[in-house]
From TrEMBL:
Binding site for glyoxylate: Y37, Y143, R178, K251, H275, R278
This protein's UniProt keywords: Flavoprotein, FMN, Isomerase, Oxidoreductase
Annotated FMN hydroxy acid dehydrogenase domain residues: 11-378
Keyword ATP-binding tagged: no
SUPFAM superfamilies named in the record: FMN-linked oxidoreductases (SSF51395)
PANTHER family: FMN-DEPENDENT ALPHA-HYDROXY ACID DEHYDROGENASE PB1A11.03, S -2-HYDROXY-ACID OXIDASE-RELATED
Domain of life of the native organism: Bacteria
Protein name, UniProt field: Isopentenyl diphosphate isomerase/L-lactate dehydrogenase-like FMN-dependent dehydrogenase
Annotated PROSITE patterns: FMN_HYDROXY_ACID_DH_1, FMN_HYDROXY_ACID_DH_2
Cofactor(s), names only, from the UniProt record: FMN
A GO molecular-function descriptor: isomerase activity
Length: 378
């Protein structure tokens, strides 16, 4: 209603409300390096495309006369109350697309009471982002540092700064082959003075200070090697429990046996995700694995989903297929690029409004009503 009313007054939204056009307009707005850092995917992009295509294989079957005028989309996820089942996926180095980076994202998320999952690779410190998010819900994502002391220190700081749940990303123990990103290598790290290292977190600064500023590429590689390069096995998980007393979720689960194993190991939740198609090109669409995984472990643990969510219908479908909530990645980052905090808010409010309308018009008043019977596979 707000958008229509403003339109009658001659004011249209600052930028598009359409998720596809949003990416196109970000391509016009951003330099190629920053744009491809966000838009890029692994290899040929087959998995990134499959993530989107998978949603098309499911269609909503709307119901009529269900008294859906008033809707309550709220839910609770591992102790965090959400006005709608949407979280902000962890996205690293957000100052690449806007100087306010994660601070702007945190403010927008807090205003909407949606949890922001802060990336280990944040361009602003854990504490500064916590301050920007005020009393808003916040979770922390871990890229598991090779050094246990660094890891323990990061987790301690996150806990002290009020992040409640821990998301441990398993699918990126080393970076995937991302041609578009490689073609623009280091461009995202350019600023007006030449190369600049965008990480302000003390854990990174202390490493980077060992490297002369003029040799920023070496510094960046040094940072990357701090949190990548080491794959682990299931026996490593107790370390996390010892260093984190809140809920823990494993992100990047794609096989039903891994989901079972995570839950058997005492994890509180999993995120069915292929990192937005950025890691294994040719990997199965994340949505295609969701029903089987949710059926296997949904009763025992919290199942979240990301990779390809763009519209309200996508949110509805993921929930109907067993997700408790979804995370959204690239779209809000494009919002950030377009307008900082306001831009993130515009994108998220659009997604929430679209989801709300889609729920109502398909005859649903609460998210608990959603299961696979509301969809038809085509
Ligand atoms: C990511 N993602 C990510 N995940 C993570 O655990 N830590 C991180 O630092 C990042 N960084 C990151 C940067 C950029 C630019 C993108 C696009 C993605 C993955 C992210 O959390 C999420 O899994 C995907 O973005 C979901 O897919 P969509 O919504 O972008 O299709």
């Amino acid at each position: 209603n707000e958008i229509y009313l403003q339109g009658y007054g001659g004011t249209t939204p600052a930028f598009t409300t359409d998720a596809t056009r949003l990416e196109e307009s970000a391509a016009d707005l951003l330099e190629p390096g920053p744009f491809w850092y966000v838009a890029g995917a692994a290899g040929s992009g087959a998995t990134a495309r499959a993530n989107r295509a998978a949603f098309d294989h499911w269609r909503i079957v709307p119901r009529m006369l269900t008294d859906a005028t008033e809707r309550d989309l709220s839910t609770t996820v591992l102790g965090t109350e959400l006005p709608a089942p949407v979280l902000l996926a962890p996205v690293g180095v957000q100052s690449i697309v806007h100087p306010d980076g994660e601070l702007a994202t945190a403010r927008a998320a807090a205003g909407l009471r949606l949890p922001m999952v802060l990336s280990t690779a944040s361009s602003h410190s854990i504490e500064a982002v916590a301050e920007a998010s005020g009393d808003g819900p916040r979770w922390f994502q871990l890229y598991w540092p090779n050094d246990p002391d660094v890891c323990g220190s990061i987790l301690r700081r996150a806990k002290e700064a009020g992040y409640t749940a821990l998301v441990v990303t398993l699918d990126t123990w080393t970076l995937g082959w991302r041609p578009a990103d490689l073609d623009g290598a280091y461009l995202p790290f350019l600023n007006g003075d030449g190369l600049a290292v965008p990480f302000t977190d003390p854990a990174f600064r202390s490493l980077l200070e060992k490297t002369p500023e003029e040799d920023a590429p070496t510094a960046i590689l040094r940072w990357i090697s701090m949190v990548t390069g080491t794959d682990r096995n299931w026996s490593a998980l107790p370390f996390l429990r010892e260093h984190w007393d809140g809920p823990i979720l494993l992100k990047g689960i794609q096989h039903v046996d891994d989901a079972r194993r995570a839950v058997d190991a005492g994890m509180d939740g999993i995120i069915v995700s292929n990192h937005g198609g950025r890691q294994v090109d040719g990997a199965v669409a994340a949505l295609d694995m969701l029903p089987e995984i949710a059926t296997a472990v949904g009763e025992r643990a919290t199942v979240l989903f990301d990779s390809g969510v763009r519209t309200g219908a996508d949110v509805l479908k993921a929930l109907a297929l067993g997700a408790r909530a979804v995370l959204v990645g690239r779209p809000y980052v494009y919002g950030l690029a377009h307008g900082g905090e306001d831009g993130v808010r515009h994108v998220l409010r659009g997604l929430l409004a679209d989801f709300d309308l889609t729920m109502g018009l398909s005859g649903h008043r609460t998210v608990t009503e959603l299961d696979s019977t509301v969809l038809r596979r085509v």
